[in-house]
Write a structure and sequence with these properties.
By secondary structure, the protein is of the alpha+beta class. It is 45% helix and 18% strand. Helix 5 runs antiparallel to helix 7.
Length: 211
């Protein structure tokens, strides 16, 4: 089996064990597995995708526990983000549940949020986003993001795009899990195909609501 640019399914097993042993002693005893099964393969995969999508940022495995009641020291997933604009781009994650592929934006300064709502409200740009989200949903992507419970002030409650106006952040994700291509040379092309499906959403945000 060609594993040069794929992600070993053993990476999922690593995180399943970490969920049961989230402590420094276990991590230090299994750090080589993290490097071999998770970090190295992800870096190779992202390197394959870089010419098309740009460089990726691999997140630190350590959790910031300063202000959290949960003091578990390590994240139970390894994520990476490809972005040419702060907070806007493509996401990849491996965990005990397998591979997750996503894209969109997660930042919302007041000025950015105002631009987003104005673009959603406008017939042309709002209609375009509506079609993008509908197409992603039909393709099996879950539409996510931080949302208000009601339509924001200044917009009619029965707005035709009321559900989109409630969003403060907007992203879409799909969870292939552990498909047969995960640890083969097909992994890069499979991830790329899904990121291309997400590109219209990312491009829309960059055009109308970039930070």
């Amino acid at each position: 089996m060609d594993t040069t640019v794929g992600i070993p399914t053993a990476a999922c097993e690593f995180y399943a064990e970490l969920e049961q042993n989230n402590n420094r002693e276990w991590w230090l005893a299994h750090k080589e597995q993290y490097l071999l099964l998770v970090k190295g393969p992800l870096e190779n995969l992202l390197g394959e995708l870089e010419p098309i999508f740009g460089p990726a940022k691999l997140f630190r495995p350590n959790r910031d526990v300063r202000f959290s009641p949960d003091k578990s020291p390590y994240k139970t997933a390894q994520g990476a983000f490809v972005s040419n604009y702060e907070g806007v781009g493509f996401y990849l994650q491996i965990s005990a549940d397998g591979l997750l592929i996503g894209g969109g934006y997660h930042s919302h300064s007041p000025a950015q949020l105002a631009r987003f709502r104005s673009a959603v409200d406008a017939p042309v740009s709002g209609g375009s986003l509506e079609r993008i989200v509908r197409d992603l949903s039909a393709a099996g992507f879950l539409i996510e993001g931080e949302r208000l419970k009601t339509v924001p002030r200044g917009f009619p409650k029965d707005h035709t795009r009321a559900e989109l106006l409630k969003h403060k952040t907007l992203s879409a994700a799909v969870l292939p899990g552990s498909p047969d291509w995960l640890e083969t040379s097909r992994a890069a092309s499979e991830v790329a195909a899904r990121w291309e499906q997400l590109r219209p959403l990312v491009d829309w945000v960059i055009r109308y609501a970039a930070p």
